[in-house]
């Protein structure tokens, strides 16, 4: 039989009586209407006597990437996904899922409804719906626990984490891993013909101890920080062991539909699509990035070591340069230590650690950078130091090598102007710890060549990080907005709010940590040094709050000194009467009569300060789109993702 076409994205071929149904719906085989309709038509064809079994597979890097998120908010067109899933599970003949890529969300639910699941080594499985502010809507919360038990299902569905095919096999989510997926799936299908079929929905949820369920639920909810979806997902999974399948499916579907239309889900969908827009820069259309295989990092202190580990984990060869052999050796040990931590946390295998470290070279001779494709400086954030270094690198590296500065506050244009080839200079503002934080601001300097910018974006994406392109301004996007956020918070403290009132309001709203606690953790001396540098040029008419200066003059630099905005002498964060007295003295000196602030007013003013600074960044062309600003504040400054970011929250999207 030649290939039959069931819809624009679903075809079928019969091989030895087995109908092989193939989905081809790039880029991720999402379950758009024509995929769902095609699957139903394929099952109709499989009812004929010449078909004894069905294998379901897909073309592309994903098996099925889930429901089509772009269809959310539009009227559902039948067949709905639950219709398709019910038809698969109840089909009279064996339906085998041949999973060669990511089976996510509805894709995993389709696999769960099949009577057997064969995967390739590269396949992965997950129900990440909570990351979109929803719960699985096509049986995931009811079928997954029937296969892998309540505790494991709470973990996977409550966190949305994706598992490899190895882990899926261990959990019981799949039946086998095949080196030759097509052959393995065909064999499985043939063996199931005329056999009793294992229908997942008909299974009972394996018994588990209530305490174990509760512990798994507590672990998930402790990390969900007030989000609704994880709590609802956990509730549905736990109910699966007590309710009939039909009732559980009805509860799940109603919950999914309710959450899908929620503000939290809209916010997280905004973030999802924003992350995929961030790398797209109009002027780079058709520009080919330069090849980057070897990376030099000048300065292997805390930041440089983190960048080096990110690059090593991404497969690059890395040369770490320090001023002396001893410093270079210390850098090597720092990098080895970070890799060891990844092994201890299970993020890296011993073998992968050794292989990564074998690609690292520590040196004190900058000449070792002569063949590097990209050199990143992570030295002390001082303009003279960086400018001198780039003058030197200009003479050492190849003419086509890219030079990147990791400055947080300096003007990269001034650094670039010190070199003979400013077009090859770009800014890469990593966030510390650089081997953990996803966000990197890619600074498009005045002279940066398009292919250099494209190379920087591609490099950051290869690190598995989130590149957000910005123009040159003090603090780029994140620190500039953070400065406005901090100023507004200090205005309110000077006007009568207590630091812990501000932090409590922010944490109740969804921030993991309030701004004064964050400042204490980062260290107050950094901002103090910058304020002193700026004092000569500060606008005398602009309101200036001196409280933080007074704290620093008293040696209160934050957690590291045991005292900052708070007192940490017993290890806990506590309000400090000495700080209260200091604040009162500053108010008195300015003749300020303190007033009360409600939590709502505190949050509203801080969110407005961020959004207004974001608007200014857009107007100045520093940020290309409002959603980029949201990504920076979510991924670099703890803005709760389920609130969408300051611009989304302000209604600017
Ligand atoms: N729907 C629509 N578009 C999608 C999509 C989806 N599910 N997934 C990705 N895209 C688009 C994306 O916007 C981008 O578009 C392009 O595909 C490539 O994406 C019923 C209700 C699958 C691991 O949460 O995790 O099923 O920018 O750059 O790096 O219970 O995409 O090119 O125009 O990310 O190779 C659950 C979401 C949905 C998975 C591939 N599924 N997607 O990564 O490509 S809800 C998910 C991903 C659901 C059921 C519920 C990743 C990927 P553009 P990409 P990638």
Verbal overview:
With 653 residues, the protein is an alpha/beta fold. The protein has 3 domains: 3-264, 2-enoyl-CoA Hydratase, Chain A, domain 1, CATH 3.90.226.10; 282-470, 3-Layer(aba) Sandwich (Rossmann fold), CATH 3.40.50.720; 478-621, N-(1-d-carboxylethyl)-l-norvaline Dehydrogenase, domain 2, CATH 1.10.1040.50. It is 47% helix and 13% strand. The strands form 3 sheets. Strands 14-13-12-15-16-17-18-19 form an 8-stranded mixed sheet, with helices on both faces. The radius of gyration is 28 Å and the shape is globular. The mean pLDDT is 95. It binds (2S,3S)-3-hydroxy-2-methylbutanoyl-COA. (2S,3S)-3-hydroxy-2-methylbutanoyl-COA is lined by residues 27-28, 30, 61-62, 65-70, 81, 102, 104-106, 109, 128-129, 132, 134, 136-138, 140, 273, 276.
């Amino acid at each position: 039989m030649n290939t039959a076409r069931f819809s624009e994205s679903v075809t079928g071929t019969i091989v030895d009586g087995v109908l092989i149904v193939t989905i081809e719906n790039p880029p991720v085989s999402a379950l758009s209407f024509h995929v769902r309709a095609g699957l139903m038509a394929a099952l109709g064809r499989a009812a004929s006597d010449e078909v004894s079994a069905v294998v379901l597979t897909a073309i592309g890097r994903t098996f099925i990437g889930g429901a089509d998120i772009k269809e959310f908010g539009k009227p559902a067109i039948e067949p709905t996904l639950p219709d398709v899933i019910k038809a698969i599970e109840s089909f009279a003949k064996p339906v085998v899922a041949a999973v060669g890529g990511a089976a996510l969300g509805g894709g995993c639910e389709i696999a769960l409804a099949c009577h057997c699941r064969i995967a390739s080594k590269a396949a992965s499985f997950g129900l990440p719906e909570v990351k979109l502010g929803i719960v699985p809507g096509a049986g995931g919360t009811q079928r997954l626990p029937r296969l892998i038990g309540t505790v494991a299902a709470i973990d996977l569905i409550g966190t949305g984490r994706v598992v490899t095919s190895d882990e899926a096999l261990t959990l019981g989510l799949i039946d086998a891993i095949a080196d030759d997926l097509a052959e393995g799936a065909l064999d499985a299908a043939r063996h199931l013909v005329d056999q009793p079929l294992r229908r997942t929905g008909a299974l009972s949820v394996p018994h588990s101890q209530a305490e174990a369920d509760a512990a798994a639920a507590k672990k998930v909810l402790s990390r969900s920080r007030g989000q609704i979806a994880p709590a609802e997902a956990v509730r549905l999974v736990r109910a699966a062991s007590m309710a009939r399948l039909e009732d559980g499916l009805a509860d799940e579907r109603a919950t999914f539909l309710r959450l899908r239309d929620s503000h939290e889900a809209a916010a997280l969908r905004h973030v999802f699509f924003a992350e995929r827009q961030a790398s797209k820069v109009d002027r780079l259309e058709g520009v080919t990035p330069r090849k980057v295989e070897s990376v030099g990092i000048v300065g292997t202190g805390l930041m440089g070591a983190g960048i080096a580990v990110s690059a090593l984990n991404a497969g690059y060869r890395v040369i770490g340069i320090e001023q002396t052999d001893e410093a270079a050796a210390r850098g090597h040990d720092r990098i080895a230590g970070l890799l060891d931590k990844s092994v201890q946390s299970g993020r890296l295998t011993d073998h992968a650690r050794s292989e990564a470290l074998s690609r690292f070279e520590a040196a004190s001779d900058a000449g070792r950078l002569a063949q590097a494709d990209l050199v990143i400086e992570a030295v002390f954030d001082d303009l003279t130091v960086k400018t001198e270094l780039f003058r030197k690198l200009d003479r050492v590296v190849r003419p086509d090598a890219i030079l990147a500065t990791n400055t947080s506050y300096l003007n990269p244009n001034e650094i670039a102007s010190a070199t003979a080839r400013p077009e090859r200079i770009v800014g890469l503002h990593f966030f510390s710890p650089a081997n953990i934080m996803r966000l990197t601001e890619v600074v498009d300097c005045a002279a940066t060549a398009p292919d250099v910018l494209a190379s920087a974006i591609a490099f950051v994406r290869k690190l598995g990080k989130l590149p957000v392109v910005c123009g040159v301004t003090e603090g780029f996007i994140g620190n500039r907005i953070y400065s406005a956020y901090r100023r507004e918070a200090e205005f309110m403290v000077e006007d009568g709010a207590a630091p812990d009132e501000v932090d409590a309001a922010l944490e109740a709203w969804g921030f993991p940590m309030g701004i004064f606690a964050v400042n204490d953790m980062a260290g107050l001396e950094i901002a103090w040094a910058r304020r002193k540098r700026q004092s000569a040029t500060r606008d005398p008419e602009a309101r200036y709050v001196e409280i933080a200066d007074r704290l620093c003059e008293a040696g209160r630099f934050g957690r590291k000194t045991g005292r900052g905005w708070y007192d940490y002498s017993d290890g806990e964060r506590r309000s400090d009467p000495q700080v209260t007295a200091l604040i009162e003295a500053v108010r008195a000196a300015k003749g300020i009569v303190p007033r009360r602030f409600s939590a709502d007013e505190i949050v509203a003013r801080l969110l407005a300060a961020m959004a207004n600074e974001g608007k200014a960044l857009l107007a100045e062309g520093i940020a290309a789109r409002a959603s980029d600003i949201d990504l920076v504040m979510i991924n670099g400054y703890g803005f709760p993702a389920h609130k969408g970011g300051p611009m989304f929250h302000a209604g600017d999207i």
